[in-house]
Amino acid sequence: MDADVIVVGAGPVGLLLAGELRLGGAEVTVVERLTTPMTESRASTLHARSMEILEQRGLFDGLETPPNLPAGHFGGIRLDLSQQPSRFPGQWKLAQADLERLLADWARGMGTRILRGYDVRTVTSSEDAVEIGVHTARGPKRLRAAHVVGCDGDQSSVRRLASFDFPGLPATRELFRCDLTGVDIPDRRFERFEDGLAIAATRDGVTRVMVHEFGRWPVRRTSAPEFTEVASAWKRVTGEDITGGAATWVDAFDNASRQVSRYQQGRMLLAGDAAHRQMPVGGMPLNVGLQDAMNLGWKLAAVVQGWAPVGLLGTYDAERRPAGRQALHMIDAQAHLLLGGPEVDAVRAVLTRLIELPAVRDELAAMVGGLDVRYEQGDRLDGARLPYAVLETASRSTTTTELLRAGRGVLLDLSGDQTRGDGLEQLIQDVPGAVKTERATVPDGSPLAGIDTILVRPDGHVAWTGDCDSDPTAALCRWFGAVKEGRYSPARSGSAHDT
């Protein structure tokens, strides 16, 4: 084997996945077609949940926090994000090239091997391994691993070569975008003209423009459009001449909406845009892909390390495919609102009024920010992400975020019951998976107040909650491996919450 896992694609999703796999103890090789890191800005928006994930791994330690915008949009209609229930409400601006550099340094620092100039040409799966054939400047090579994960974008070679089914809706509309220097045009926030939609924003001397002509059908392309095509469309829609600017990046994208029918096929898996193709509205594809990587990393590492309970890896598809489908529906709705002509004006007018209602605003803001993802319904926080909370242990003050830095599960005892805590510590000594216990208290008003025990997965989602009489053995077995029967007795001396 050349690695336990080969990740195809060194974009943000592939690099985050590589880091998560390394945290879980897997040997990882990342192969990337491009010979050098990309420099284009491309996706530049991180949502609240993505910022929580990056902070959860300490990736912003010692770095300046990215610029924040308190408002976003839903289909081009302004959406206040400042009330999101997160430490990171709003949108955070970080160029994709900078995000990739941050994640690559992190993953490489933990021992990830990143091979550039490796173009995947073949994928062959057997009962015990996957072999990929790659073309390099030095000729063909073959690499072998226990698992291969395609994180290689919406034109994924892994998806195509492994014959993943990829149903969905074809593109019906096209939108141009480019980055320009040397132009002076007004900022336009989803401005609708008689013949189309125009967007312009200038930051650090670079102006990002996007333009769509109502009713324009997409053109089958094998390469990016010429800047002259973008400038002509901009002139027809806005009447402005931008031909004097210098284009540093030109792109076209459409509203195709597709999702693979399953995220796992034997020893091959997909994540990010390789698993779902959608219009890049508000940076949604990047942020959904980061959640894919976070969900998959610890589970696949558990399989490689040999402690994964039966069915653990299958929960990746069971959890992320419905979440991806929900994101596609939301993006499709926004695409209709954005790219529709006069026929959608009435719907936009109604939504503009509704979105001012707090209940509507908060629901849409949670969906946009990735804060609504809940993998199962249950008591209290089951299936939801663990809220940020300050914790007081016997030796220090800490936070829920800091407890998850090591990428391990956490059995958090908040009961204040000595017998309970001793029993939980004894219990996890027999747990095969990577889980630790932590005893702490929380102040009044904490989002965790009133909960005695919380089992948290390495990805930050709550696996189980219980009171002092609850036995966490079944939840531990489900997520972290079999525990010897009868190891835990719920006998207790009295919960702090009882008083």
Automatic annotation (TrEMBL):
GO terms for molecular function: FAD binding; oxidoreductase activity, acting on paired donors, with incorporation or reduction of molecular oxygen, NAD(P)H as one donor, and incorporation of one atom of oxygen. Residues 2-328 form the FAD-binding domain. This is Oxidoreductase. It comes from Phytoactinopolyspora mesophila. SUPFAM superfamilies: FAD/NAD(P)-binding domain. Pfam families: FAD_binding_3 (PF01494), Rng_hyd_C (PF21274). InterPro entries: FAD-bd (IPR002938), FAD/NAD-bd_sf (IPR036188), RIFMO-like (IPR050641). Its cofactor is FAD. Keywords: FAD, Flavoprotein. It comes from the Bacteria. The lineage of its organism: Bacteria, Bacillati, Actinomycetota, Actinomycetes, Jiangellales.
